[in-house]
Amino acid sequence: MLEMTSESQTEAQVIEACQRGDMEALRVLFDRYKDRIFSIAHYVSQDEASAQDITQEIFIKLFRQIGQYRGDARFTTWLYRLVVNTCRDEARNTRRFLPISEAAASSLPAESTLEEHYLQCEISKQVRTAVMKLKLKFRLPMLLRHLEGLSYDEIAAVLGLRSGTVASRLNRGRALLARDLRHLRDSIHPGK
Fold it and tell me: In the CATH hierarchy, which fold is given to the domain comprising 105-192?
């Protein structure tokens, strides 16, 4: 068993240990990626309980399928592919899209007024709702690009698409969001 308590363990060492069946190595991968995976699953499923189930399922699949990872691509690309496929399966199986729940209210900074805070929360809610209304083929590239910061090539590898298709879907997704959120721009900047 590889000692996994140290932050000095490289990702390659952790993956190799996980491939040998080391449960501590799986815990390290879980700690490193659970929040990212949950975030994507939550945006796709639009339900916190489903996102938790999907996250758990992904780590079960990860442990079962880690032996298939050969290092040909970055580990995160391989992992995101697993996440996207699991989320797609869940969307196909459930065919339910529930409204996104409100995140817990954060504490107000001293300089903010209650009205500014409310306005910002309302704008965030409307943006999240608009993103959730996007078809999965537009939503997934948007999430991978803007939440995870993946490049077009990385998104293409995760989704099994060409880079040009990724660019097209991102542009279409942005156009749909701009259309759906036009009322926000008009209310914030009247006359533009």
Answer: Arc Repressor Mutant, subunit A (1.10.10)
User: In this predicted model, what pLDDT tens digit does every residue of 128-144 receive, in sequence order?
Assistant: 888 888 998 999 999 89
CATH for the stretch 1-101? 1.10.1740.10
What pTM value is reported for the model?
A: 0.62
Quote the CA–CA distance of 145 and 85 in Å, as a whole number: 17
Domain boundaries, the chain: 1-101, 105-192
Angstrom distance (rounded) from CA 136 to CA 15: 30
Read off the tokens for 63.
């442990």
For residue 105, report the phi and psi dihedrals to the nearest 5 degrees: -65, 135
Q: Which CA distances in Å does 153 have to 17, 100, 156, 180, 191?
A: 28, 30, 5, 28, 38
